[in-house]
Structures are given as C-alpha cells and as structure tokens.
Description:
Blueprint: E1 3-8, H1 13-25, E2 28-34, H2 43-51, E3 55-58, E4 73-79, H3 86-91, H4 93-112, E5 115-124, H5 158-177, E6 180-186, E7 189-190, H6 199-209, E8 215-218, E9 223-224, E10 227-228, H7 229-241, E11 248-252, E12 258-259, H8 260-270, E13 277-280, H9 295-301, H10 309-326
Parallel strand pairs: 1-2, 1-4, 2-3, 4-5, 5-6, 6-11, 7-10, 8-13
Antiparallel strand pairs: 9-12
Helix pairs in contact: 1-2, 1-7, 4-5, 6-8, 6-10
Amino acid sequence: MKKKVLILGGTGFIGLGIARYLGANRDYDITIADIFPEGQKDSYFIQIISDYSIKLIDGDFANPEMFKKLDSNYDYVYMLASVVGVNRCIEEPHEVIRINTALIQNSLKWITKNDIGRVLFSSSSECYAATTDTFNYKVPTSEEVPLTISEIGHPRFTYAVTKMLGESAFLTYGKKYNFHVTIVRYQNIFGPRMGFKHVIPHLVQRFYDGLEKPFKIYGADQTRAFCYISDAAEGTVMALENDNSDQEIYHMGSPEEITIEELTKTVGSLMDYKGAYEAAPTYPGSVSRRCPDISKSIKNLGYAPKVHWKDGLEETVSWYIDFYKSGTPIYSGGFKTPDELSYKG
C-alpha cells in the first residue's frame, strides 16, 4: 500500500519542490493542502500536479475548520505553511504573527487528534538574526547556536519569532503526544518559481526593467550561502524519513558563502548588464553574514548538495526572464527599496 503524504503549504516554492521530488522518486499518495492563488496555478504547477496525480485541498488553514477537509491518517506530514517575505514583515507584521501562529496551533491540534506518523516542521535561518552581528558566534553556523534576534519589537523579526515558536511547539507536542517530529532550518533556498519576495527575483526584475544606472547593490558586503531547490527538497525528505531523526534539527542549505555583490554582478552578467554598480544601504534588520554548517546533515542523513549556486542561478534567472517577457503579472511581492519599506503600525 502506498504511504500517504500531506504537504501543508504545498503550493509554495519549497512545498512544490518537495512534491515534485516525492512524485519523481517515491511511490506515494501525495496531497497538497494550501490556499491556491490564481497566479500560482501556472503551467509548471499544473504539470507537476498532473504528472504525479497529486490531490489538492484548497483553503486557508489559519482557519481551524479547514482541517476537517483532511483525512484522519497520514504517514508523513510536511508542515511548511506560513507567510514570509521582508516586505510582508515590515508592512504587516501583525498579520505575519496572526497567520503563522494560527497555522502552528491549528496543525498541532489536528495532529494530536488524528493518526499521524511522522511530522516535519520547516524553520528558517532567520532564527539566527542576531547570532553573528550581536553575539559574535562563528560562521558557518551550527544547529547548536542559540536562536536569537536583536530587537523584539522590530517588525523585521516577526517571521523569525513565529518560527522559533513553531520549533518549540512541535518539539514539545511531539514529546507530549508521542509523535515523531523533525525540524529543518532552510538556508536561502532558491530556484525557478521561487516567488517575488526574495533577493534573486528582485535582482532579475530590476535588471530587466533597466532603470538603474548605476545599478545599486543593497548590502554589497553582506554574505549568504544559496542552496538550489532540488537539493533542499531531497534533503528535507531525507530528514523526515530517517529513522533516527525524531526530535532532531537539521540545516538544509549549502556551505558556500558569497557576497551580495558577487551575487548581484553574476546576475548582471547573465542579463548582459554593461553598466556601473554602486553600493547602497541594506534593508532594516538584515544581518551581515549567513552561512550554515551542514556537517550534521551530511553525517546523519547523507545529505550532499549537488547543484552549484552559479548553475542554479543560471536556471533561475532564465526562468524569471521568460516570466517577465510573458507579461504575466506578479502575483505576490515585488521589489521595493529599503526607503520604500516602512512599518504602517
């Protein structure tokens, strides 16, 4: 009999990446439960759903009544549902807290009342917001480093706070109600169709528009380590299906740290930009360095990123160029300068 898999938040970038990986490499009965914005029902999404006979359940799972649409038993549950994005955190931090907290609470209540095998909760490198700049922990960052933010009232950190809550809640409920729980902290996952809320789509949009001369590099000296979606999806499945992963936390990412300047100029080169560049101030609450130590994932799971960031970037840039050429409207997000982002609280 096929194992039953539920992906809460499966229309999102990482969720659909996991669905694609599972469909291509495992013989599973897959269900995606999420809100289905019209703009995300593109040909790529429809093709994956069709190829792997994935069941769709449409609804806002911040509403507990929506969980009545789900079955009462699943072998594997990937809890990825949340709202994210710097723009959203700065402009609507109250909604980030409300929605993400509700999703956590509703999911746990449903899990404890049904026959659920293993559960994975998706967390984020955002939980390390103050570890380097404020507390000077070494980089690459390991899973043992304390989760910290620098200012509890800053809207930029509302997403991180909800992810910390989720980690604590899922680990605690797993012990109390005796279900298998694994946490993964994603570290700058990227690829085609990753939405319009992150640095790489913003760069492609700006270069495509061709309005900036010189081209501004926001936070040029800051560093990140980018991980391609196929590697993150495979590693996530490895983490949940590992027999020794109960109550464990794993990084999903790549260990190659690059500057935002290098990233920006690489995108510029791919898009035939010949102009000058200039450094510009970064976004509020943005950290200076971010790079994961993935040795635990390598040792315990056999995880090994296969796609170099430059190869993945070429694929990603090509996808976004085609998107902008098509004239399709952006369904969520889009670029804003640091000055344009302001808290409306």
